[in-house]
Design a protein that fits this description.
The structure is a single chain. By secondary structure, the protein is α+β, with helices and mostly antiparallel strands. It has a domain of 220 residues. Helix content is 41%, strand content 17%. It contains 14 helices and ten strands. A five-stranded mixed beta sheet has the order 1-4-5-6-7, with helices on both faces. A three-stranded antiparallel beta sheet has the order 8-9-10, with no helix packed on it. Helix 1 packs across helix 2, helix 5 packs across helix 6 and helix 8 packs across helix 9. The chain is extended. The C terminus is likely disordered. The structure holds iron/sulfur cluster. Iron/sulfur cluster binds next to helix 2 and helix 10.
Length: 454
């Protein structure tokens, strides 16, 4: 059997000069660890290049700021009250349960947050989504249980790292139960699908339902709050994802998993395993293995810099096609990618022509064609195109009618020759290159592009 050119399943270490900058006393964030849980290389790319924003991410950031402000109005209705949130009287708790922020106030807070954070750009569609999510939040959320933390920072020293989380909301339904809420601005997963994901056949929870809540339960159980004290000795953790996109008569959509302390110990073992890999393999050996999957599509911070050739990760577009929502998501992606593909092809064509002007002959494919290689026998090729166009249709018709009555028809008076260049994908026999580009050179950024991002 021929030897594989590269062992894609166990790639070499990232070269020394491409190491991300890791500050002293680095605290791996929850979002970094969540990405790393799917793909070590994606985590490396995030460290190296940071994370570009998107309308969806900005929508989430804005919504969380708005929800936080609204929750603070509810949890601390008297600003002069400086007691810790959980030392509220029964009367205050009763009042808290009855409070709902009027939707008009929610809307004002939304616009206040958008004005204060102009860098968080959201398009009209996302602004609309934000408007109705804030409206649903105001009309559908009630807080009957003591709120013990809003965006509280919790930290945990573990395996030589200090990890931190900021759960959206911490509530204490009773002294043995901690409820951890995470507000989501995406659409909720189908209830049955979520049940399948998070529970076994006997309806016992297998895990928290998502990485974020798994980790939140671990840090809440074994870590400390800002004041250095643990949150409490809870036996049960109620992990709630709520989805203000959907408002039912009895409140906004929620997906809840309740886990006991024993299960949280298993989640802690998972986190330790991951942090061991981060320390001993990723950081010590500089090995950040790419592992493709559906996360390549919308979670990778810089998929263009992935060392795996796209051909080895296209099926990630087709992963998890189990529900109508997955199909609709993929249909939207296909449409979006089609439009982006057309725009990218235009850019490729003009960049190729520019490069050729600077380096004559650079587009010579070695078989008589000019173009850009796609693979071994496929290329975008420049094909000269000759044609004709009518100068004036009305005059042409007139001349045609006149010709029927014997007036001579002079073709060149009505039609002009055109010339153009088509840039088309063609299957074509390409001679091997003198020197093949190494995958790292091909897919990692060339030096001048790196400078732009570093
Ligand atoms: S494209 Fe996929 S495999 Fe490559 S780094 Fe990103 S997430 Fe990992």
């Amino acid at each position: 059997m021929p030897e594989l050119p590269t062992n894609w399943r166990n790639l070499d270490p990232v070269p020394e000069d491409r190491q991300p900058h890791i500050p002293e006393n680095w605290t791996p964030s929850q979002s970094f660890l969540r990405i790393m849980d799917k793909c070590d290389r994606a985590a490396y790319l995030r460290l190296r290049f940071g994370d570009a924003g998107s309308h969806e991410l900005n929508r989430g950031a804005i919504a969380h700021m708005v929800f936080e402000r609204l929750e603070r109005m509810i949890a601390a209705p008297t600003p002069e009250n400086e007691k810790p949130d959980w030392l509220v009287s029964a009367q205050e708790r009763h009042e808290q349960a009855a409070i709902q922020v009027p939707p008009e106030i929610g809307r004002e807070v939304l616009y206040e947050v958008m004005r204060e954070n102009p860098e968080l750009q959201v398009c009209a569609e996302e602004r609309d989504a934000l408007r109705y999510m804030v409206d649903h939040f105001c009309r559908g959320m009630t807080f009957a249980d003591p709120i013990i933390g809003i965006e509280t920072t919790l930290t945990l020293e573990i395996n030589g790292f200090r990890v931190l989380i900021r759960p959206d909301l911490l509530e204490e339904p009773d002294s043995r139960t901690l409820r951890i809420r995470d507000h989501k601005t995406a659409w909720p997963p189908d209830a049955e699908e979520f049940r399948r994901q998070a529970f076994d056949a006997n309806d016992n929870p297998r895990w928290a339902g998502n990485y974020q809540l798994n980790m939140a339960a671990v840090v809440a159980a074994f870590g400390v709050a800002d004041d250095g004290a643990p949150l409490g000795n809870y036996q049960r953790y109620e992990l709630v994802l709520d989805f203000p996109r959907v408002l039912y008569p009895d409140g906004i959509a929620e997906r809840t998993v309740v886990v006991d302390r024993l299960q949280v110990h298993s989640f802690r073992d998972d986190l330790e395993l991951q942090l061991d890999r981060l320390r001993d393999v990723c950081l010590a050996e500089r090995k950040w293995q790419p592992t493709p999957g559906s996360h390549c599509r919308n979670e990778c911070p810089a998929s263009d810099a992935c060392p795996l050739p796209p051909i080895l990760r296209p099926e990630s577009q087709l992963a998890d096609l189990d529900s109508l929502a997955d199909l609709e998501q993929l249909a939207a992606n296909v449409n979006f990618m089609g439009e982006r593909g057309t725009a990218l092809k235009k850019r490729l064509k003009s960049a190729a022509l520019r490069l050729e002007e600077e380096n004559p002959g650079v587009l010579d494919l070695g078989n008589g064609d000019r173009g850009v290689r796609i693979g071994r026998d496929l290329a975008f090729v420049f094909i000269p195109k000759e044609g004709e166009e009518i100068k004036d249709k009305a005059k042409l018709l007139e001349a045609g009618e006149a010709a029927e009555h014997g007036v001579p028809f002079i073709r060149s008076d009505h039609v002009r020759a055109t010339e153009g260049i088509e840039f088309a994908k063609r299957k074509t026999a390409l001679p091997p290159r003198a020197v093949e580009l190494e995958p790292e050179q091909r897919w990692e950024n060339p030096p001048n592009r790196e400078e732009k991002y570093d």
